[in-house]
Amino acid sequence: MSITDKVVAVVTKIPVGFATVLKTLFRKPVTVQYPEQTKPMSARFRGRHHLKRYDDGLEKCIGCALCAAACPADAIYVEAAENTNEERYSPGERYAKTYEINMLRCIFCGYCEDACPTNAIVLEPIEFPTGYTRDGMIYVKDMLLEPPPAGAPATPQQTPAGKYDRAILPFPPITD
Ligand code: SF4
Ligand code: SF4
């Protein structure tokens, strides 16, 4: 290609470039000012994990580590300890003394949620894990455990002997 042809090619492209700029100049911006603004997410979207409680304030997690076994990213660490009636965290024999999720490893597949026999671990649809450091992205139990429902005591609780002899409480009756 001669120099003249090259100059002609460049010059003819300039109006195309300006036309593209003018076309997009008055379009509504698509940028969302996160985190002040959020976009609606799909109902299937899985965000940050939460550890749930029963209505009486006891923790649903029984420290069985099935979630850790099911996790394909090896992101969950669970260490269990024994409940006593004087110091009870969950129904049944054991509770999670240590529960950690490394959010940098997590791929938000939801396998932990599926594996949990007590529906203790739930990936909420609208929250995203954030942090400034690698250590800060390891979410420990205090960060994951939800506060007790209104009026219910926190854990540990003192409970009467024999009341919580099963790890999984009966599900409430279906009213629909
Ligand atoms: S969502 Fe998936 S990757 Fe993340 S902790 Fe659960 S099982 Fe592991
Ligand atoms: S979250 Fe569920 S599966 Fe994981 S240790 Fe607790 S009870 Fe077991």
Question: How are the secondary structure elements laid out?
Answer:
Elements: H1 3-25, E1 49-51, H2 66-70, E2 76-82, E3 94-102, H3 111-115, E4 121-123, E5 138-139, H4 141-144
Antiparallel strand pairs: 1-4, 2-3, 3-5
Bound molecules: iron/sulfur cluster (2 copies).
Residues 70-73, 75-76, 101, 106-112 line the site of one iron/sulfur cluster.
Description:
The protein contains 4 helices and 5 strands. With 176 residues, it is an alpha+beta fold. It has a domain at 49-144: 2-Layer Sandwich (Alpha-Beta Plaits). The strands form 2 sheets. It has a 3-stranded antiparallel beta sheet with strand order 2-3-5. Strands 1-4 form a two-stranded antiparallel ribbon. The longest helix has 23 residues, at 3-25. Residues 70-73, 75-76, 101, 106-112 line the site of one iron/sulfur cluster. One iron/sulfur cluster is lined by residues 61-67, 78, 96, 115-116, 118, 120-121.
CATH topology of the domain at 49-144: Alpha-Beta Plaits
Estimate the mean pLDDT confidence.
90
Which distinct ligands sit in these coordinates? iron/sulfur cluster
Head-to-tail CA distance between termini: 77 Å
* Helix fraction bin: 10-25%
CATH class of the domain at 49-144: Alpha Beta
Q: Please compute the radius of gyration using only Cα atoms.
A: 26 Å
| Estimated structural class | alpha+beta
Strand content: 5-15%
H/E series? HEHEEHEEH
CATH architecture of the domain at 49-144: 2-Layer Sandwich
Count of distinct strands: 5
